[in-house]
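User: Predict structure, ligand NAP.
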Amino acid sequence: MGNDLDFSTRVKLNNGVEMPVLGLGTWEMHGKNAQKSILYALEIGYRLIDTAAIYRNEKDVGKAIRKSGIPRDEIFITTKRWNADHGYKSAIAACERSLRRLGTSYIDLYLIHWPVEGLRNRTWEAMEALLNKGRCRAIGVSNYMVRHLKEVLDFSSTIPAVNQVEFSPYLYQKGLLDFCQAHGVQLEAYSPLTRAAKLDDPGLISIAEKYSKSTAQILIRWVLQKNIVTIPKSSKEEHTRDNTGVFDFVISPEDSQAMDSLDENLRTWWDPSEVE
Ligand code: NAP
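Assistant: Predicted complex:
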């Protein structure tokens, strides 16, 4: 990816599929409001939409995409199977349900939402079958720590295309990032804005002021410069637009390093580090 980025930049996943570097997260977006926010994002250039079966908004994502009039193959849809849908047969059936709700014949990136103990490898076999059948263009995982990734790499010849995890300067998982990059797994940052918890942090504000940028823009740019794909969520038009203003500046190596040291192991969601 490097520092030479724009809104149309895509990364090549390990199976050759191309994925936009910046997308829209959709957690807690529902119904007409969700459709309106997603449609707005598509209108201003977003081409990656992140949803999940558990968000209960796949139908809204599908409707907004159709309403946009943008050809399906120009939009990259990520969805995720929920924890109740592990095991081979359940996994296949869950994918078909997501496809129906989205109203599409394929998912661009299908993820295992959580590394459920004892079931995840059988589920991975189902993911491989779905990939081979063309129901998904790429398959990956979410909330996998290094040991979960090592298990898949030992067990399967299909390397996950993506690992979607919580990632920000306040949760700088450098070991996980290095492992993913060494093994051809694209890291994708969720909650890159710390769910707004740190947007007023004085350390971050001083860096943002230096670049005349918002703290949200600084956080997004920091992950992009580490070759990480990201999906900030916003339901407000001004925020959705603000989050795209990340392609006209470069954070210096010194400031990027200063941001690395903001790490405080801050998890705003669940913690997979205890999952065996
Ligand atoms: P996030 O993107 O870090 O933060 C979202 C929050 O920041 C919202 O409250 C939003 O408010 C606010 N915000 C957005 N842009 C802003 C801006 N420019 N200025 C000020 N505030 C701003 O958190 P997230 O939703 O947890 O993570 C992003 C996406 O990752 C999710 O939506 C979901 O798609 C995905 N995710 C995946 C997992 C997983 O387990 N795989 C877990 C969590 C999240 P407004 O809506 O009011 O703009």
